[in-house]
Structures are given as structure tokens and as C-alpha cells.
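User: Just a sanity check before I run the rest of the batch. Below are the C-alpha cells for the first item. I only need the designed sequence back.
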């Protein structure tokens, strides 16, 4: 990590640039292919925070910008396909409810790692991991049986959450 002062050509004000160097190794299977070095530049006018705190603050803000981008493009709650105001409103409400379902599902997780992963997951990835799992619905006696026809690494988390919701419903 390094920092320096920078003034753009036609600007009267100095800015602080914080540079983070990341050494990455690209691997295929067990074999290391090559090393890759990536530099990240953070521009700020805050001269009081330490460089590490500037980077941490910026990364937290990036998560908010990713959230806004997901609502615009991933969901797409803000791209209404209809031509009248009421339909656009309904489409946006459906999108926001879907996003809330993702957030509540993530907050229900007892494991902090899963909670963080689900909350930061893109909506398309959430759809593929939890909602678009093919299943067969069988009516047997007085109950419904859902037979999963596919598996992905998130299925155990889904099943634990369903079990937890059932326990909450019974109490």
C-alpha cells in the first residue's frame, strides 16, 4: 500500500491517491501457471484517515454501488417494460419484493459466512442457486412432497432454511 499527492492538469485542488498492490497467482487445478500483479487506485480528498481506512471505507461504498447496479440491471426493478404508470409501479414493487426475499433469506442464516455470501450475492446468482432448482411436486395423502431433481452447493443451505422456517411457523 502506498499513497501520493496528485493534481489533475486543469484542477486547483490536490487529491490524495492511495494505491494497493495485489499479488495474485493464477492456477489451473493444482498447478500454478503464473503470477499476476494488479494495482487498485483510490482517489480521495480526505487527508485525515489512514490509507487502510480509506481503502476499507471505499470498498464498503462499492458494495452500495453494487447494490444499486443490481437493482438497475440484475433485477431489473428500474427497467419497467410497460407503458403506463400503474403497471410500472407494480413491476417495481415486484422487483423490490424479490430483492427483499433475497435479503430476508440471507438474514435467516445462522452461519455468518453463508449470511455474508447470500447478502452480497448478485440477484441472478441467487435465482440460480435457490429459486430455479427444478423439482417435482407430488401430492401424497394430506401433504405435498417436493422432490428436488437437481443439486448445487447451495441446496443444503436451502433445506436447512426451510426446516428453520417450519420450526418458526409451528411456534
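Assistant: Here's the designed sequence for the first item:
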Amino acid at each position: 500500500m502506498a499513497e501520493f499527492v496528485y493534481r489533475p492538469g486543469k484542477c486547483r485542488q490536490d487529491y490524495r491517491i492511495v494505491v494497493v498492490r495485489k499479488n495474485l497467482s493464477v492456477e489451473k487445478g493444482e498447478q500454478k501457471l503464473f503470477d499476476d500483479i494488479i494495482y487498485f487506485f483510490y482517489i480521495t480528498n480526505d487527508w485525515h484517515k489512514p490509507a487502510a481506512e480509506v481503502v476499507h471505507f471505499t470498498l464498503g461504498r462499492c458494495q452500495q454501488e453494487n447494490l444499486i447496479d443490481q437493482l438497475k440491471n440484475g433485477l431489473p426493478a428500474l427497467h419497467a417494460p410497460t407503458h403506463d404508470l400503474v403497471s410500472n409501479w407494480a413491476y417495481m414493487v415486484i422487483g423490490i419484493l424479490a430483492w427483499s426475499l433475497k435479503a430476508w433469506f440471507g438474514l435467516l442464516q445462522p452461519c455468518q459466512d453463508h449470511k455474508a455470501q447470500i447478502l452480497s450475492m448478485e440477484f441472478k446468482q441467487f435465482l440460480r442457486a435457490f429459486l430455479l432448482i427444478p423439482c417435482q411436486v407430488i401430492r401424497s395423502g394430506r401433504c405435498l412432497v417436493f422432490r428436488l431433481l437437481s443439486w448445487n452447493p447451495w441446496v443444503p443451505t436451502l433445506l436447512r432454511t426451510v426446516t428453520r422456517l417450519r420450526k418458526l411457523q409451528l411456534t
